[in-house]
Write a structure and sequence with these properties.
The chain is an alpha/beta fold. 39% of the residues lie in helices and 12% in strands. The strands form 3 sheets. It has an 11-stranded mixed β-sheet, sandwiched between helices.
C-alpha cells in the first residue's frame, strides 16, 4: 500500500456527512440499550438484548406515530383516579346550609382596614347598601396596583371585567335580585384558570402570551354567585414555587422572602388584603405552603369535589382546586359555591355540601400525630403544641396515632412527575422548555426533562403502592373525624395529596422571626365539614386568623 497517499479535503467532508447521516438513521444501538439498563436498575443478558432490540425499534416507531396526533389540553387519560378505597363509607352531608350575614357592620376607621374584613362583613356592607360593589371593587383594584411593584403577586389585573361585573351587581342588588353572600365581593384567581378574553400564562415564559378561549367552571360558578374577578394572580411557573416569568412573588410579612408556591399570588394577595379571597390549586402542597407562609387559611378539598375544567393540569390524578381566605368560614363559603358535579370534568362527584355550625364540636372524634408534633423543636412546633392545649380547653380530647408505616413515600413523586411530563410533552420536545426562567436542578424545567426517563412499569407500580396507601389511610381515618398534623416535616402532606383526603391549613401564630406558622387538619374523604367546623371553633377562640402583615 502506498504510504504517500493524499486524501482530498472534499472526500473527508463527504465521509463525515455520511457518518452523521448513518448515525441519525441508526438512532440507537444495542450498546445504548445496555447503558439504559443501568439507568433503571435492571440487567439483561446479551442474548436477551439481541432479541429485545427489534422490539424497541418498533416501540420507537409507535412513539413517533403517537406524536403525530396532538392532544388538546382538556383531554384526560382514559385511566382516571378514584380516591375511594375498599370498605369506605360515604359521610353524611349537611344539606340545610345558610350563611349568616351580620346586621351591624360599619365602614372601618381607618378605611384601609376594610381590606381585612371577612366575607360576611363585606356582604353585610353591600347587602345593607353601606358600600356599593363598584366602590369595593375599585378599592381592591387600587390596592392591587399600589402593592404590585412590591409583592409581584398579580399577572393580569382585570379592571374592565371587574367594573362591569360590579356595576351589574349593584343594579341587581338595588332591584332586589340579591344572589347571596358572595354577591358583589371581589376576588382573585391563580393564573392556571382560564378566563375568556384574558391571558392565561401558567406563570411560565413559553405561555406568557397564551389566551384560552374558555372560562374555567370555577370562575363561571363564582360569577353565578355574583362574585367579582379583579385579578389573575401569580402561579409559580407551571405550578412550581413562587418564581414566574415576571419575578418572584413576595411574602407580605417579610418581603425579603418568597411567598412560597405555587399558589404564591393567591397567598400573598389575600394576606396583604389585596383581595378578600382567592382560588388556588394543590398537587403537592401548593395551597398548604402559601397559606402557611403568608398566614392565611387554605382549604384543599377532596380530590374530585371541585371541577378542574379550564384549569392547567400538572397531575391528572392529584390536582385539586380550593380557596384561600381570611378564615375557615370564608373558605367554606367559597367552597360551597365552586364544588359539585361538572359534566365537563368526569372526575367530579355529585354530592351536596354544608356545615352544621351549631354541631357540638366535642362530638368530633379527633386524632393527632403525637410523635411528629413532639419532635418539632422549633417555634412552629411550640405554636402547634399550644394550639393543641387550646383545643383541649374547649373539650377536644385527641388520640395519639401514627401515619401508615412501611410505605415507600419517596417513590410516590414518580406519579406526579410522569403525569406532568405527559401533559407538557410537546413543551419538552419543542425545546421551548429552555425558555423558562428557572433552569436549576430543582426547577420545573429540569423536572419535566427527567420525566422522560421514568419507565411506565415504575409508574404503574407506584400506582399500585398508592392503592395500598389509600387502604392504610382509610384504616387510620375511619375511626376519626379529624387528624391534627404539622403542615410540613412529615409524611402527611405527600400521603394525603396521593389519597385525595381534604385538609385545611390554619394559622397558629408567629415564630421568632415574626413569620406565620400553621397546623393542618385532615378530614375523611368528602368530609370537609368536620375540619371546617373544628377550624372555625379554634379560630373563634384565638386571634391568629385576624392577624395581618404590618404596613398594609
Amino acid at each position: 500500500m502506498p504510504t504517500n497517499l493524499k486524501i482530498s479535503p472534499f472526500l473527508c467532508f463527504f465521509a463525515l456527512i455520511c457518518l452523521i447521516s448513518c448515525a441519525s438513521k441508526r438512532e440507537f444501538t444495542k450498546r445504548d440499550v445496555k447503558k439504559s439498563e443501568r439507568l433503571i436498575g435492571i440487567h439483561f443478558s446479551k442474548e436477551a438484548r439481541d432479541t429485545l432490540y427489534p422490539y424497541l425499534q418498533r416501540n420507537r416507531e409507535g412513539f413517533d406515530s403517537l406524536r403525530k396526533y396532538p392532544l388538546d389540553n382538556a383531554v384526560f387519560p382514559a385511566i382516571r383516579f378514584d380516591p375511594i378505597p375498599f370498605g369506605f363509607e360515604m359521610p353524611e352531608q349537611w344539606e340545610n346550609q345558610t350563611w349568616e350575614i351580620p346586621d351591624h357592620v360599619e365602614i372601618p376607621e381607618p378605611y384601609d382596614l376594610l381590606a381585612f374584613y371577612t366575607i360576611p362583613q363585606l356582604a353585610s356592607l353591600i347587602k345593607h347598601q353601606k358600600i356599593t360593589s363598584t366602590e369595593l371593587t375599585q378599592f381592591f383594584l387600587d390596592r392591587l396596583k399600589k402593592y404590585q411593584p412590591m409583592l409581584q403577586c398579580s399577572i393580569t389585573i382585570t379592571d374592565s371585567l371587574a367594573m362591569a361585573q360590579a356595576k351589574r351587581a349593584d343594579q341587581e342588588i338595588k332591584s332586589g335580585q340579591y344572589r347571596g353572600i358572595l354577591h358583589g365581593i371581589p376576588y382573585g384567581t391563580k393564573d392556571l384558570m382560564s378566563v375568556a378574553g384574558y391571558p392565561t400564562t401558567w406563570g411560565a415564559a413559553p405561555y406568557k402570551d397564551q389566551e384560552i378561549d374558555q372560562t374555567a367552571t370555577v370562575i363561571e360558578r363564582l360569577e353565578e354567585s355574583g362574585a367579582i374577578l379583579v385579578a389573575k394572580l401569580v402561579s409559580g411557573a407551571l405550578a412550581r414555587g413562587d418564581v414566574w416569568f415576571g419575578g418572584k412573588t413576595k411574602n407580605p410579612w417579610d418581603t425579603t422572602q418568597g411567598a412560597s408556591g405555587s399558589s404564591a399570588g393567591s397567598g400573598s394577595a389575600t394576606s396583604a388584603g389585596l383581595v378578600p379571597f382567592a382560588l388556588g390549586t394543590e398537587t403537592l402542597g401548593s395551597i398548604t405552603s402559601p397559606s402557611t407562609r403568608n398566614g392565611v387559611t387554605g382549604l384543599r378539598p377532596t380530590y374530585g369535589r371541585v371541577s378542574r375544567h379550564g384549569v392547567m393540569s400538572l397531575s391528572w390524578s392529584m390536582d385539586k382546586v380550593g380557596p384561600l381566605g381570611r378564615n375557615a368560614e370564608d373558605c367554606a363559603i367559597v367552597f360551597a359555591a365552586i364544588q359539585g358535579k361538572d359534566e365537563k370534568d368526569l372526575t367530579t362527584i355529585d354530592l351536596p355540601f354544608g356545615v352544621d355550625w351549631k354541631k357540638d364540636i366535642t362530638s368530633l372524634k379527633v386524632a393527632y400525630l403525637k410523635e411528629d408534633i413532639e419532635k418539632d423543636t422549633t417555634q412552629s412546633g411550640d405554636n402547634l403544641r399550644n394550639a393543641l392545649e387550646t383545643l383541649k380547653s374547649i373539650g377536644i380530647e385527641p388520640t395519639a396515632v401514627k401515619m401508615p408505616e412501611a410505605i415507600p413515600y419517596r417513590g410516590f413523586d414518580i406519579i406526579l412527575r410522569a403525569e406532568a411530563g405527559a401533559f407538557f410533552d410537546a413543551l419538552v420536545r419543542s425545546g421551548k422548555v429552555d425558555e423558562m426562567v428557572e433552569q436549576d436542578q430543582r426547577s420545573r424545567a429540569n423536572s419535566l426533562r427527567q420525566s422522560r426517563f421514568i419507565p411506565a412499569v415504575e409508574y404503574l407500580q407506584a400506582s399500585r403502592q398508592r392503592q395500598v396507601l389509600m387502604q392504610e389511610m382509610n384504616t387510620l381515618m375511619k375511626d376519626y373525624d379529624v387528624l391534627i398534623s404539622p403542615s410540613f416535616g412529615n409524611d402527611q402532606l405527600l400521603a394525603t395529596n396521593l389519597t385525595g383526603h381534604p385538609v385545611i391549613a390554619i394559622p397558629t401564630g408567629l415564630d421568632d422571626k415574626k413569620h406565620p406558622t400553621s397546623m393542618t387538619f385532615v378530614g375523611n374523604l368528602y368530609d370537609e365539614a368536620s375540619i371546617l367546623l373544628l377550624a372555625k371553633a379554634f379560630q373563634e377562640r384565638t386571634g391568629f386568623d385576624e392577624m395581618h402583615p404590618p404596613g398594609f
